[in-house]
Design brief:
Length: 340
């Protein structure tokens, strides 16, 4: 059965009770103890801040005892933690000295995830996210809701950053391959799936930095670099639609190969594929969300489907609980309809 999920930035009692009350079943757990509601990434700026590139060195090996405490605390609210984030260092993403040591840390964290019963670890593989292209269409949505848009024209002529430099597609793919060949055997032994999120926004290049997961061909190529059930994608219905792809067709492509690790479920209206779009409510974009839910069911997907990004709603909390409740209510209805 498809699971309705939600990523957690904090594990405050009020947060966990709220998500349980509105129908969430499984969660993506944080790897740090944080009981301050609406913090730890839960409250995000409506328009993301400018990115300056990844940090150089990988953080340390996770505190396994702490993660057990976090897991047990979440489980005490009848929520099941099955996903977590696996951050990657600048050394890994940019092929710098020290990446082998950083990969050893990543492999140790994968092993810990396996022992804790975390089924999926998510990651991004980009040296610089094109967040400068986002903007706000305040009050322009349904009932004057606030919408977020992306327009590549805002950033297409920006120069490389001195702190990041230029990185070609060939260089980025060499690093992706090196990463996968190093860590997928560990993931297989640990019984963990690694799921890469597509580059979002899905432009080809930003400030001289190639975005290897910016198109459908890149996502298909990824699962072929190392052919393993542990080498998966983080499927995003919104990004697939932004790319100009048919999200339903892509669910069937990756799902029939058992290469969907976890899912972000959201909708957009596309003006120019890959380059200009608006993020909207589930029920008003270009993607047929119910058909997507049907396709997940048809391919036998049994993992988590998680809402991501929500338009701004009047009177909402700083951590957008009204938006999440609206999205999750729709997701539950669609999931129950296709499975019953």
């Amino acid at each position: 059965m498809i699971k309705i999920g939600k990523g957690l930035g904090d594990i405050a009692e009020t947060t966990l009770r709220f998500f349980k009350q509105i129908g969430v079943e499984e969660v993506s757990m944080p790897t740090r103890w944080n009981e301050n509601p609406g913090t730890g990434g839960t409250t995000r700026p409506f328009v993301p801040p400018t990115q300056t590139g990844p940090r150089g060195k990988q953080g340390g090996v996770w505190d396994e005892a702490l993660l057990v405490r976090i897991r047990e605390h979440i489980e005490s609210f009848d929520l099941k933690p099955t996903v977590a984030g696996l951050g990657l260092s600048g050394n890994i993403l940019m092929g710098q000295a020290g990446r082998d040591d950083d990969l050893d840390v990543v492999k140790a964290n994968i092993e810990i995830a396996g022992r804790l019963g975390i089924q999926v670890l998510t990651y991004n593989f980009t040296a610089l996210r094109p967040s400068e292209g986002y903007g706000g269409r305040m009050g322009e949505g349904r009932g004057s809701a606030d919408l977020r848009d992306f327009d590549y024209d805002r950033i297409k002529d920006l120069p490389p950053l001195d702190s990041v430099g230029s990185h070609s597609h060939e260089e980025m793919w060499d690093r992706v391959t090196y990463f996968l060949e190093a860590v997928i055997p560990t993931a297989e032994q640990a019984g963990v799936k690694l799921a890469v999120h597509p580059n979002d926004p899905p432009v080809p290049v930003h400030r001289g930095v190639a975005q290897p997961m910016g198109d459908v061909e890149g996502m298909k190529r990824l699962i072929e670099v190392v052919d393993s059930p542990s080498n998966c994608i983080f499927f995003d219905t919104g990004v697939m639609t932004e790319k100009g792809a048919d999200a339903v067709e892509m669910i069937r492509y990756f799902g029939s190969r058992n290469r969907i690790g976890t899912v972000h479920f959201r909708n957009v209206r596309v003006e120019v594929p890959r380059f200009k779009y608006v993020e909207v409510f589930h029920d008003e974009g270009d993607c047929d969300m119910f058909a997507c839910m049907q396709a997940f069911h048809e391919v036998g997907y049994e993992g988590v489907i998680d809402p991501d990004h929500t338009p701004g709603v009047d009177g909402d909390t700083s951590d957008t609980r009204v938006g999440w409740a609206f999205a999750i209510g729709q997701m539950l209805a669609m999931r129950n309809a296709v499975e019953r």
